[in-house]
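<goal> How does this chain fold?
<body> The protein record starts here
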Amino acid sequence: MIACLLRHQGLQLDARDQDQATALHLATDSGDSEAIAILASADPAMVHAKNKYGRTPLVIASHRNGRVSVVQALLDHGADLASREDSGRGSIEFAAAEGHLPVLRLLIEKGALLTNKEGFGRMAIHYAAMGNHVQVVQLLAESGADVNATDKDGWTALHYAYCTHNQDVVKLLIDKGLDPLQKDRLGRTAESYGTDSHEVNF
């Protein structure tokens, strides 16, 4: 359909919807790898276009559908691994938050940085711990992520794991060397949040 429109009806490639999404954003959201390849080939700049939230197609692919084929198609057409949405989150943080293990593995293989911090100072490993994605936490740790990294409140991934009662992640992080006595800005250890009803804002 996309190829037909391009050939015979002159599809307007720079058109945007109310969210400032391009046709490539929409094809990515629907997981249509064939349409992605056609659109990205017709207009390579579209791969780097951002919607009104500052999200590129790659960020959307890592967040919404978690399909390796979609992420690979975008990378094959020059998608930027370092692209970030307005909050500072990128493809690696979204993949970690959603537990998209195969996508995360691909992003790491392609050179995505594990050291990026979004606006609140959270890294991919923090998001993986929040979501109780044990295998994701393990992959990040084994790929060189700093398990002791802190956000702006001084929270480590262990603080998030205790706060959200993710005991499997707690055990894994401690096994990977995270200091259970490390304190946040309030002087509290991760374990002290285990019995709190502390709200975590994403």
